[in-house]
Amino acid sequence: FVKMHGLGNDFMIIDAREIEPNLDQNVIKGLANRNLGVGFDQLVLICKPISSKADCFLKFWNHDGSRSSTCGNASRCVASLIMNLKSVDSAILETEAGLLMCEKNKNGLISVNMGEPKLNWKDIPLAVECDTLHLPLEGDPVATSMGNPHCTFFVNDIDSKDISNFGKIFEIHQLFPDRTNVQIAQILQKNVIRVKVWERGVGKTLASGSSSCAVAVAAFRRGLTTRNTKIILDGGELFIHWSNNGVWMSGETKKVFTGTLSDDFLVQVGKS
């Protein structure tokens, strides 16, 4: 496997294009344990593509063993691996949310097109019909889907708010049948937003790509920012551009190390 991160949002990445491992929730939770396993926010499998246009198909699991249909920062990390392996500057990744175009920029940043956001209540999904720009919840949040659901709160002083409190309450709120990612965001300038993130199935994270895209979309819909936005997260900066062909996200990726799991460890987590 390879351990990588995008602004501290970290991943265990397994190349499963030849042999796909048999993973269950207990094994994933064992691997995710930061004291007894590898430790990560998400686990990613690189699988054979279904579409002839794609370089590979990605499968994602959260820290708690639950499935996720997409992950922006993980996609950027895999794109970096694929492009370096093939000595190219672009790649197409396939996920349950669709095909993702990725590019390596001249400044070394990796960009991914996360596609068009889904803004209809059924597509996010929400449990009942309501205005996704002004949810009927305390704090007046915005709902967005970037292939996964998001709930964004705009606040005047982000340092006075505890993202863990917001996250624990609203991740499992009955309005979100599939749970939701939660963000609190403060507009610093017309094109700069400070953001803190709670990911469903993970908890508080240093960064989140899809969350950053959702915040940028929500802010533009509210008339708070332009379509070009810098997102300042606890782990660093992402640059979001909502163009006419989707939401592009750009940022750094880092390869930390490669590793091999021991037989003893696999036997242990298999029995847990």
Q: Tell me the structural class.
A: alpha+beta
The portion of residues forming beta strands comes to 35-45%
Q: What are the segments in which pLDDT stays under 50 over at least 5 consecutive residues?
A: none
* DSSP strand count: 17
Give a brief description.
The protein is of the alpha+beta class. The chain contains five helices and 17 strands.
Topology:
Blueprint: E1 2-6, E2 9-15, H1 25-32, E3 42-47, E4 56-62, E5 67-68, H2 72-86, E6 90-95, E7 98-104, E8 110-113, E9 142-145, E10 149-154, H3 163-170, E11 181-189, E12 192-199, E13 203-205, H4 209-221, E14 228-233, E15 236-243, E16 246-251, E17 254-258, H5 263-271
Parallel strand pairs: 2-3, 4-6, 10-11, 12-14
Antiparallel strand pairs: 1-2, 1-17, 3-4, 4-5, 6-7, 7-8, 8-16, 9-10, 11-12, 12-13, 14-15, 15-16
Helix pairs in contact: 1-5
Explain what you see.
With 272 residues, this protein is of the alpha+beta class. It is built from five helices and 17 strands. It has helices at residues 25-32, 72-86, 163-170, 209-221, 263-271, and strands spanning 2-6, 9-15, 42-47, 56-62, 67-68, 90-95, 98-104, 110-113, 142-145, 149-154, 181-189, 192-199, 203-205, 228-233, 236-243, 246-251, 254-258. The chain has a 17-stranded mixed sheet that branches. α1 (25-32) packs across α5. The chain starts with a strand and ends with a helix.
